[in-house]
Amino acid sequence: MARAPVVRGTDQDHRLEPRALVIGVALGTKAIAYPFLALQKQSPIMDFIGDVPVVIVVGEDDRSVRAYERTLDGRRLEFFKTKETAKTIAGSNATGFQLLDAETGSVWDFEGKATAGPFAGRRLKRIAVLEDYWFDWLIYHPDTAVYQIGPQ
Q: How far apart are CA 37 and CA 60, in angstroms?
């Protein structure tokens, strides 16, 4: 089965293959394309979009992606994925996907809600993400940055 050609003009940007799957995030005038394969290898990713600190995570299904502002009450949070149960970490009964913030030791679920620790019951502000092909994202965000995976 033959593929339709990529839209003309987008074949000039060779940072990614035209049909590479990206998770695009745009805030204000800034946009970043996160190659899906990089997200799967390095979730969670902490980054800045403009001056907004963000965290981008891939769910337990290795397919679902969420992004959140990682500032709460004026504190910028750093997140780490944990394989321990939240009960072991902070006295909750949460299971499944969870992140731990280094600043307070709060445990966070995939919905951006703290399930245990000092921030229990609080939520991070969710940021819209768009799963798209690189060539298509580039059409609407020609000045986009591309996330480069860090050391493994």
A: 15
Which amino acid belongs to residue 11? Answer: D
Helix ranges restricted to H, the chain = 36-42, 86-90, 134-140
Tell me the residue range of the domain where 118 lies.
71-123
Per-residue pLDDT of the chain (152 residues; tens, 9 = 90+): 666 555 555 557 889 999 999 999 999 999 999 999 999 999 999 999 999 999 999 998 999 999 999 999 999 999 998 765 444 444 555 557 899 999 999 999 999 999 999 999 999 999 999 999 999 999 999 999 999 876 54
DSSP string, 95-131: -SS-EEETTT--EE-TTSBEEESTTTT-BPPEE--EE
Number of domain units in the chain: 2
Residue 60 lies in a domain: yes
Q: How far is CA 112 from CA 17, 54, 59, 90, 134, in A?
A: 32, 12, 12, 17, 27
Residues 6+ apart with CB under 8 A from 7: 135, 136, 139
In this structure, the answer to whether residues 130 and 104 fall within a common structural domain is: no
